[in-house]
Specification:
The protein has five helices and six strands. It is an alpha/beta fold. It has a six-stranded parallel sheet with strand order 4-3-2-1-5-6, with helices on both faces. Strand 1, helix 1 and strand 2 form a beta-alpha-beta unit. Helix 4 runs parallel beside helix 5. The radius of gyration is 14 Å and the shape is globular. It starts with a strand and ends with a strand. About 35% of the residues are buried.
Amino acid sequence: MREKTCCFTGHRHIPEETYQQVKKKLEQTIKKLYNSGIIYYGAGGALGFDCLAAETVLRLRENYPKLRLILVLPCKDQTRGWKAEDKNKYEEIRQRADKAVYTSEIYATGCMHKRNRHLVDCSSVCVCYQTQPRGGTAYTVNYARAHGLAIFNMA
C-alpha cells in the first residue's frame, strides 16, 4: 500500500498572491500521481496547506472515484483554540474523508512530529508546500527525503 500512497505537508500560511497558483499546481500534481498509480492521500488536518490538499483530493474524487483521503491526525483535541470557521472546515473535511487515524489521544509534546512521521512512514511520495528551511514542514520533508520518498514542492 505504501507504494500507492502520497502524504502532504506544508505551512499553515500560503500568501494570498500565490494561493491560486499553488492550488492549480497541487491539482495537476495529484492528477499525475493518480495516473501513475497513487490512489491514497494522507493529510495531517492542520490549517493551511493540509486543508487545501485535503479539499483538493475531495474535489478530484468526484471525477477520480478511486482516490482516497486518509486523515492522519495528531490528537482528538487538535482544533482546541481554533476559530469557529476553521473548526467547521476541519469537521467537514473529517466527515468526508475515507478514513481518520489519530496518532495520540490528547495533545502532548511531540504529537505533531509523531503524526508527521506516520504520514511519511506510510507513503512513497511527499507533496509539500515548503518555503522555509526550518520548522515542522522542513522537518517532515527532510524526514521524507531521508526515507527515500519522491518529493514534489508546490512552492
